[in-house]
Amino acid sequence: MNLRKPYLVFLGEITLKSDAKTGFGLRDWCPADVIGQWALPQATVSLGLPVIAPSDAAALGAGSLVIGVAPVGGQLPDSWVPTLVQALDAGLDIVSGLHTRLESHPALVAAAARSGARLVNVRQSERPLPTGTGRKRSGLRVLTVGTDCALGKKYTALALTRALHARGAKASFRATGQTGIMIAGEGIAIDAVVADFIAGAAEMVSPDNAADHWDVIEGQGALFHPAYAGVTLGLLHGSQPDAIVLCHDPSRTTIEDYPHIPLPRLREAIRRYIEAAQLTNPGVRCVGVAINSSTLDDAAWARYRQVVADELGLPVCDPMRGGVDAIAQALLA
Q: Do 251 and 207 contact (CB within 8 A), yes or no?
């Protein structure tokens, strides 16, 4: 995938921080590739980056306007189109991770034709995908899983890859979502794959490898999510993980945007993930818990971490608050 950098991140009319996970992911994991941000007046969430209009960003050398929002359903609102047209007229490519194809908006097609800029749909894959086989593959795999969506599975996978490299281990981050693909430059957006081929796509993302090589696979969704559990299960089976890392946000008691669906206890979540993963890898184990502790002060985080570690007998880390070295150590043990 050839994406023109640096990026200007577009935040639309966003009012919910968790919907900006694409923008925050690019800011945090490839900051040298991000020149600034732009949003509509109704937006209340900021990445803390310089605010730059698309035409000014193009003059500063930006190559693409990246849609940094991942709203529920992945649709592109009509209210965004005028801004995207302005970016195209300025010569910026539009890079989108939404389910809606950019070409479905005639105004974008016409603007791209005028300027020669590209419409790039990261989430759509043109390659043929197989069904899953369940065949044991060489190499080692660890998958990040969660109690809910948008709580740190990508960040944990990226941090764990970095921690494994620091320990001299062979490891590759394997992207399964639009933001991860923009960071890594390759991967498959699992939630855009036809259901019959999800497990097969996961097998393609993490193919046979050297016996001592770890594929660190970015998780998607949650087994406990009423809308996205199917994506999670297919990815779990196709990834065939030797290990899982459970990701959790302690500020949540219910699935985000689904207040009638309570979150499971961590021990129960681990049990259910292990049970489901055993279909394709009977030897799977949980090696740690990654916590998004952003809502906790230092003292509360220290207490919570100790309680969870004592209860589960596993290393408990926040990838953005001390790193995941303890989980890397458990993985390599």
A: no
Instruction: Read off the pLDDT of residues 269-325 as tens digits, 9 standing for 90 and up.
Output: 999 999 999 999 999 999 999 999 999 999 999 999 999 999 999 999 999 999 999
In contact, 100 and 74? CB cutoff 8 Å:
yes
Q: How long, in residues, is the chain? A: 333
Q: Where in the chain is the domain with CATH 3.40.50.720?
A: 7-121
124-153: per-residue pLDDT in tens? Answer: 877 789 999 999 999 999 999 999 998 999
- Of the candidates 259, 268, 261, 263, which has an alpha carbon nearest to the alpha carbon of residue 250? 263
Residues 245 and 287 sit within 8 Å (Cβ to Cβ): yes
Residue closest to 120 by CA, chosen among 173, 70, 67: 67
Pinpoint the residues of the chain covered by CATH 3.40.50.300. 140-332
Contact 176, 217 (CB under 8 A): yes
CB burial of 212-251 (b: ≥16 within 10 Å; e: otherwise) equals: ebbbbbbbbbbbbbeebeebbbbbbbbbbbbbbbbbbbbe
- 140-332 folds as Rossmann fold (3.40.50)
Q: What's phi and psi for 259, nearest 5 deg? A: -65, -15
In the prediction, which pLDDT does 9 show? 98
Question: Which amino acid does the sequence have at 200?
Answer: G
> Helix, strand or coil for residue 266?
helix
Residues contacting residue 307 through CB under 8 Å, at least 6 positions apart: none
Partners of residue 255 on adjacent β-strands: 258
Q: 7-121 belongs to which homologous superfamily?
A: NAD(P)-binding Rossmann-like Domain (3.40.50.720)
Measured over all CA atoms, what is the biggest interatomic distance in the chain, rounded to whole angstroms?
A: 62
Could you read off the pLDDT of 175-213 as tens digits, one per residue? Answer: 999 889 999 888 999 999 999 999 999 999 999 999 999
Q: Going along the chain, which residue ranges are E strands?
A: 7-10, 34-38, 64-67, 93-96, 119-121, 140-146, 170-174, 213-217, 243-248, 254-255, 258-262, 285-291, 316-317
